[in-house]
Amino acid sequence: MAMGFGSMGYAVAAPVGAKLDRPERPVVAMVGDGSFQMNGFEIATAVNYNIPVIWVVFNNAMLGMVHHGRRLFAQPIPDGLTPHFKRINFAQVAEGLGARGIRIEKPGEITHDFMTDVLASGQPTVVDVLIDDEAVPPIHARIKTVDNLC
């Protein structure tokens, strides 16, 4: 039961295949930074084969689903290993792999013109978006489902 989410890392690799299947359509994947770290080198594959996929990485330097999920359960789960990690500059990682890397540091930087440019570039692109680590991902229905199973 996926409960509305794919496995960690899925949103990094799957868009490459999706773009190969539908080359005429833009493919934009939204992925958390923890998931992005699970894979990530699919960027090199996209660069090598000129597959213009766009990854938007939500960068809060933590496994947000783990961190917030532990606190939202009816019986909160105490921290074991910390879900936090050092912030990574995914734009630089992308550039190191030969893709376009863009870092978004504050609200308002992603505009219609910005996205038009990213889509028109025709190259694999990672948009590294710094987000508030206290922003809770849309996991409330998932938490409710798990609580009902327990």
Task: Give a brief outline of the structure.
The model has no long low-confidence stretch (mean pLDDT 83). The chain is 41% helix and 15% strand.
Q: Please tell me the CATH architecture by its name.
A: 3-Layer(aba) Sandwich
Strand content: 5-15%
| Estimated structural class | alpha/beta
Q: CATH H-level name... which superfamily?
A: Thiamin diphosphate (ThDP)-binding fold, Pyr/PP domains
* Envelope shape: globular
CATH fold name: Rossmann fold
The domain count comes to 1
Labels describing this entry:
single chain; 150 residues; alpha/beta; Rossmann fold; four-stranded parallel beta sheet; globular
Structural overview:
The structure is a single chain. This protein is α/β, with parallel strands linked by helices and 150 residues long. It has a single domain (26-149), classed as Rossmann fold. The protein has helices at 10-21, 33-38, 42-48, 64-72, 90-96, 112-121, 140-149; strands at 28-32, 54-59, 100-104, 125-130. It starts with 9 loop residues before the first helix and ends with a helix. The relative contact order is 0.19.
